């Protein structure tokens, strides 16, 4: 990774007044890598992209790109593409003028005919052939997204920053655009840094996932690593796949609302949290006497998600306990609303955080 | 019950409003068609005629009433208004652009600019003329000292218009242009300017019309050669003939023509603004 790194951040810090938007961020990105940035709003992920693009200057730290220190290079000389959440198309120009904008007015040195050829090629790449002459107000949201992408890719950047580019699209378009982004990346060999607020998107798209919280990078790893071994309770929380229980870790056991369960391989954290993935929870009749953890809870409702069913239980501590049943594993059990059940799981599969752990 | 009182009351109010707004112009128009050269600026109309209009353009036989000495004054005023319009609009766009970023002392600079439209005009004019005569020691002219006061007066209007426009401007389109390798100056010309053009048009209109009929500042600062408002005022001190009213009608028509051009250009660029608004809706 180090040898092929196209891009490196070294201890980048950015403040807005008293607010630390980015705290000592260090990161290395390899050629042709797809990096997802995940974090709640205000976690500094957009700031990170804006610093990389050159729209904001960091207070301290360096930004390297293709072996060059670009910390003080203005945005238009960086050669880094940026796709905005609101697309930021030029409303007074047509589709083809938008796509050819950088080639026409930048330092490409291409003739008008060459610009047009490249623009047409890019429009074809994103599947908008035939729309060249339309105004950007005459196309749909998904098409605008493609224009924004084609406009950026026309400059042949080695690095493209995507700032929640799929956020404004409906679910259907979103998954289609995800596939297209992947295909484009295969074809053009571009490094993508993709900021997203959706954990599904982050896990689905990234070769690696970078999790941010309050301006700090709190975990970097492959989607599998992040999903299976979240580095902290906060990461587990953002992934939106875990029931989190407060309690106490002592002598290799965790005591919480569900009783005491063995926790031999706890991860060190600043507080004691017990995490159980939604699809690891089992539901038993209230009369059952399971071994291990058991939590009495009232069934509230269920949500049909297509490939699985999400059941919500109230165990009397604020947020509901969620239990996911994958339909590929068979028909779901039917639970009675307002009935009590016993929730249990295999403690081996739980992820435990604690101050006591090493 | 309420609307039975309030609605007619509001109707009367609007009627009065329109009366006060256009009443003077209607009277002016009627008197401008007075018979000439013996008819004066009073009712009743002795006989309807276009004598005074013809007199303005020198199409009537010489009489005891001298033609209005407006030719040169009109040209001076138009040139001055154009110069003021260009300089104030450029300054207004540039300074409003500067205010998009917070800089040290921005509040102070803001009030400094706005002061130009707050200070009583006579004081500005008098001060400028004293400054020119006694301190710097230069001659006063409509295209030097008066021009300066006109810019100081209209620049704040252009500035405020542009400030309002740029306040709502989504800077991500500019950042998008930079990220495509386009330098900031080209970005301004090719992206920012076309999008803020409706505002620029309004700023231009403000500066032009305010300068065209500026009186108190020009009175002291313009020196020997008079601008149109000063020349008109000068004729009042002798004797008033309906030719002044005919001239007033013509300048008003000119203003309407100007407004129509503005309206057409505005309608053309509103289409653009709508596109931008639609794009913002998506975000």
From TrEMBL, chain A:
<dbReference type="InterPro" id="IPR017871">
    <property type="entry name" value="ABC_transporter-like_CS"/>
</dbReference>
<dbReference type="InterPro" id="IPR027417">
    <property type="entry name" value="P-loop_NTPase"/>
</dbReference>
<keyword id="KW-0547">Nucleotide-binding</keyword>
<dbReference type="GO" id="GO:0005524">
    <property type="term" value="F:ATP binding"/>
</dbReference>
<feature type="domain" description="ABC transporter">
    <location>
        <begin position="7"/>
        <end position="239"/>
    </location>
</feature>
<dbReference type="InterPro" id="IPR003439">
    <property type="entry name" value="ABC_transporter-like_ATP-bd"/>
</dbReference>
<keyword id="KW-0067">ATP-binding</keyword>
<dbReference type="GO" id="GO:0016887">
    <property type="term" value="F:ATP hydrolysis activity"/>
</dbReference>
<dbReference type="InterPro" id="IPR003593">
    <property type="entry name" value="AAA+_ATPase"/>
</dbReference>
<protein>
    <submittedName>
        <fullName>ABC transporter ATP-binding protein</fullName>
    </submittedName>
</protein>
<dbReference type="GO" id="GO:0015697">
    <property type="term" value="P:quaternary ammonium group transport"/>
</dbReference>
<dbReference type="InterPro" id="IPR050093">
    <property type="entry name" value="ABC_SmlMolc_Importer"/>
</dbReference>
<keyword id="KW-0813">Transport</keyword>
<dbReference type="Pfam" id="PF00005">
    <property type="entry name" value="ABC_tran"/>
</dbReference>
UniProtKB/TrEMBL annotation, chain B:
<keyword id="KW-1133">Transmembrane helix</keyword>
<feature type="transmembrane region" description="Helical">
    <location>
        <begin position="244"/>
        <end position="268"/>
    </location>
</feature>
<keyword id="KW-1003">Cell membrane</keyword>
<dbReference type="InterPro" id="IPR035906">
    <property type="entry name" value="MetI-like_sf"/>
</dbReference>
<feature type="transmembrane region" description="Helical">
    <location>
        <begin position="191"/>
        <end position="212"/>
    </location>
</feature>
<dbReference type="InterPro" id="IPR000515">
    <property type="entry name" value="MetI-like"/>
</dbReference>
<protein>
    <submittedName>
        <fullName>ABC transporter permease</fullName>
    </submittedName>
</protein>
<feature type="transmembrane region" description="Helical">
    <location>
        <begin position="73"/>
        <end position="96"/>
    </location>
</feature>
<feature type="transmembrane region" description="Helical">
    <location>
        <begin position="12"/>
        <end position="33"/>
    </location>
</feature>
<comment type="similarity">
    <text>Belongs to the binding-protein-dependent transport system permease family. CysTW subfamily.</text>
</comment>
<dbReference type="GO" id="GO:0055085">
    <property type="term" value="P:transmembrane transport"/>
</dbReference>
<keyword id="KW-0472">Membrane</keyword>
<dbReference type="GO" id="GO:0005886">
    <property type="term" value="C:plasma membrane"/>
</dbReference>
<dbReference type="Pfam" id="PF00528">
    <property type="entry name" value="BPD_transp_1"/>
</dbReference>
<keyword id="KW-0812">Transmembrane</keyword>
<keyword id="KW-0813">Transport</keyword>
<feature type="transmembrane region" description="Helical">
    <location>
        <begin position="108"/>
        <end position="131"/>
    </location>
</feature>
<feature type="transmembrane region" description="Helical">
    <location>
        <begin position="151"/>
        <end position="170"/>
    </location>
</feature>
<dbReference type="InterPro" id="IPR051789">
    <property type="entry name" value="Bact_Polyamine_Transport"/>
</dbReference>
<feature type="domain" description="ABC transmembrane type-1">
    <location>
        <begin position="74"/>
        <end position="262"/>
    </location>
</feature>
């Amino acid at each position: 990774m180090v040898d092929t790194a196209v891009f490196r951040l070294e201890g980048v810090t950015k403040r807005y007044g008293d607010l630390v938007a980015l705290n000592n961020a260090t990161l290395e990105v390899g050629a042709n890598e797809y990096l997802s940035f995940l974090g709640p709003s205000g976690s500094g992920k957009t700031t990170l992209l804006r610093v990389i693009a050159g729209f904001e200057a960091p207070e301290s730290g360096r930004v390297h790109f293709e072996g060059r220190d670009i910390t003080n290079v203005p945005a238009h000389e960086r050669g880094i593409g940026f796709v905005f959440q609101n697309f930021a198309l030029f409303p007074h120009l047509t589709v083809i003028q938008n796509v050819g904008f950088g080639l026409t007015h930048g330092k490409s040195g291409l003739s008008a005919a060459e610009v047009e050829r490249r623009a047409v090629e890019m429009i074809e790449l994103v599947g908008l052939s035939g729309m060249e002459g339309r105004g950007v107000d005459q196309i749909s949201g998904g098409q605008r997204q493609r224009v924004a992408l084609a406009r950026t890719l026309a400059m042949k950047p080695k690095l493209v920053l995507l700032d929640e580019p799929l956020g404004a699209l409906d679910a259907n378009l979103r998954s289609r655009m995800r596939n297209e982004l992947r295909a484009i990346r295969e074809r053009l060999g571009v490094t993508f840094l993709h900021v997203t607020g959706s954990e599904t998107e982050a896990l689905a798209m990234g070769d690696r996932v970078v999790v941010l919280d309050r301006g700090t990078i709190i975990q970097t790893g492959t989607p599998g690593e992040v999903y299976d071994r979240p580095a902290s309770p906060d990461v587990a929380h953002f992934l939106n796949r875990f029931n989190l229980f407060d309690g106490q870790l002592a002598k290799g056991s965790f005591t919480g609302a569900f009783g005491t369960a063995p926790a031999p391989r706890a991860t060190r954290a600043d507080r004691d949290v017990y995490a159980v993935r939604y699809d690891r929870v089992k539901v038993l009749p209230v009369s059952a006497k399971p071994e291990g953890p058991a939590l009495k809870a009232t069934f509230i409702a269920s949500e049909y998600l297509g490939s699985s069913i999400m059941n919500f239980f109230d165990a009397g501590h604020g947020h509901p306990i969620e239990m996911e049943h994958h339909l590929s594993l068979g028909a779901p059990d039917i639970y009675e609303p307002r009935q009590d059940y016993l929730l249990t799981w295999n403690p081996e599969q739980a992820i435990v955080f604690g101050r006591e752990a090493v | 019950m309420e609307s039975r009182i309030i609605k007619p009351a509001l109707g009367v109010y609007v009627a009065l409003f329109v009366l006060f707004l256009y009443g003077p112009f209607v009277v002016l128009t009627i008197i401008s068609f007075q018979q000439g050269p013996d008819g004066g600026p009073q009712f009743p109309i002795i006989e309807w005629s276009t004598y005074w209009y013809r007199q303005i353009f020198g199409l009537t036989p010489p009489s005891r009433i001298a033609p209005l000495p407006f030719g040169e004054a009109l040209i001076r005023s138009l040139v001055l208004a154009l110069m003021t319009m260009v300089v104030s609009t450029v300054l207004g766009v540039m300074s409003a652009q500067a205010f998009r970023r917070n800089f040290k002392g921005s509040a102070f600079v803001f009030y400094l600019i706005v002061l130009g439209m707050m200070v009583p005009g006579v004081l500005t004019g008098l001060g400028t003329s004293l400054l020119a005569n006694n301190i710097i020691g230069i001659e006063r002219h409509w295209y030097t000292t008066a021009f300066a006061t006109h810019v100081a007066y209209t620049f704040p209007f252009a500035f405020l218009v542009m400030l309002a426009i740029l306040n709502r401007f989504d800077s991500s389109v500019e950042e998008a242009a930079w990220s495509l390798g386009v330098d900031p100056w080209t970005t301004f010309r090719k992206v920012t300017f076309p999008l803020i053009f409706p505002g620029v048009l309004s700023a231009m209109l403000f500066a032009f019309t305010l300068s065209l009929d500026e009186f108190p500042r020009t009175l002291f600062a313009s020196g020997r050669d008079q601008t149109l408002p000063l020349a008109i005022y000068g004729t009042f001190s002798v004797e008033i003939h309906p030719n002044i009213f005919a001239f007033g009608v013509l300048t008003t028509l000119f203003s309407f023509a100007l407004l129509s051009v503005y309206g057409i250009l505005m309608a053309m660029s509103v289409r653009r603004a709508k596109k931008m608004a639609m794009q913002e809706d998506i975000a």
